[in-house]
Amino acid sequence: MAALWAPVAAANRVGAPGRYLLALATVAGAYVLGRLCGGRFALPVPAMLAGAVTVMLVVWPDAVSGDATAPPLDYGNADGALVVQGVGAACLAAVAAVSGRWRAALLVLAGVLVVGTFATRSVAAAAGAVAVLSTALTAPLVRRRGTVVALSALCAAGVVLGTVVLGALGTRTESVEGAARAGLTERRVQLWGDGVHLTKRFPVRGTGPGTFVENSPTVRSDADVHSAHSMWLRQSAEQGVPGALCLVGVVGWVYVRLWRSARSPAVVAVGSVTFTAFVVQASMDYVAEFPAVLAAVGVVVGVATAGPDVRARPRAVPAVGVS
């Protein structure tokens, strides 16, 4: 539905749904890859993703410099979001490891990447990384995957609701002061307010995919601002309420897949918290507009929801009757 509604929202008006559709294709392709390979290669696939993120930090050490325009994504918070997915991938590989040495090595790698998120100076990324590693360390205690998935979904819903409420309050003094105490900037709250205003003004089809920048007064008045800093409010502003509901459907579908996953509760717990870390950060920033981040999210979710390897199951030995 999300892929079908974008062209409808762009029909006979200014709007370019291509970039949005490419983002959907990126995360969907990565999810399929993770799901197909994650069952048979439960350890190597996430370990390679974690290794790739680690190599990124070695090749581009400025990624952990704390600079707002740090490479390789040229946005420090997006670098942090990618590293969080690397932490999740390392933890997925760790909980799937049979060898205690491999498990310990992967958890150490995850810990190093957690330190990397702090170096990016992204508060949301650092908090998400700590949550993912903490979940991995306590994963053996998880008995019911549904509990962790439900709590993760509630956490994500709470953050989304908070951004919408702050946007609706706009630039009222108490709203801005409260946002500042929460570590948010007045400019970000104003962007959310623009998103709410545009949604109210164009509730059915929005302003058109990819047109938030042209229609936001805050963006037009500040050359350093490039997006709505919330994938939910940008979606509703550009594609109307139906577009926002499509996004809700996509995220909700992921949580349902995690709930019904055939993987162990430990794997599902790590995957659920890692995905929630992305949703929370994407609700307050524009990290969902970076293909590398979306690809990493897709692989992590795919591995966490992959079916078990049939060839790895022990074959039943037929009973021998005594005549």
UniProtKB/TrEMBL annotation:
Top-rank taxon: Bacteria
Membrane topology (UniProt): Multi-pass membrane protein
GO CC annotations, alphabetized: membrane
Keyword terms: Membrane, Transmembrane, Transmembrane helix
The keyword Repeat belongs to this UniProt entry's keyword annotation: no
Location within or outside the cell: Membrane
Transmembrane segments: 17-34, 41-60, 80-97, 104-119, 125-142, 149-169, 240-259, 266-284, 290-307
Domain O-antigen ligase-related positions: 107-248
Coiled coil: none
Alphabetized InterPro entries for the sequence: O-antigen_ligase-rel_domated (IPR007016), WaaL-like (IPR051533)
Name this protein carries in UniProt: O-antigen ligase-related domain-containing protein
